[in-house]
Amino acid sequence: MVAPINPQRGFENIPRYTELSRMAIDDFNSQNNKRYEFVKNLTVNISLAAGLWCRITFQARDTDDATTDALKTFQTSAYI
């Protein structure tokens, strides 16, 4: 049996999901010697399967690059 994937439209930026995105970008920064700053979640999809799988697409800004304000898109998966 496959668990359905449920888009969380309208709830993308609730604290639970933004905290997961912030943790993901902090982990990316520490592994890659970067300083991206979380901006906002774009999409959140969840699936209930003996817990909660969250697949999040979010935007972050590179604070080390003063020449551009361009946002970068990231994705993360988390099991909570």
UniProtKB/TrEMBL annotation:
Classification via SUPFAM superfamilies: Cystatin/monellin
Pfam assignment, any one: Cystatin
Name this protein carries in UniProt: Cystatin domain-containing protein
Domain Cystatin residues, every copy: 15-64
Single GO term (MF): cysteine-type endopeptidase inhibitor activity
Provenance organism: Nicotiana attenuata (Coyote tobacco)
The keyword Transcription is annotated on this UniProt entry: no
The entry's keywords: Protease inhibitor, Thiol protease inhibitor
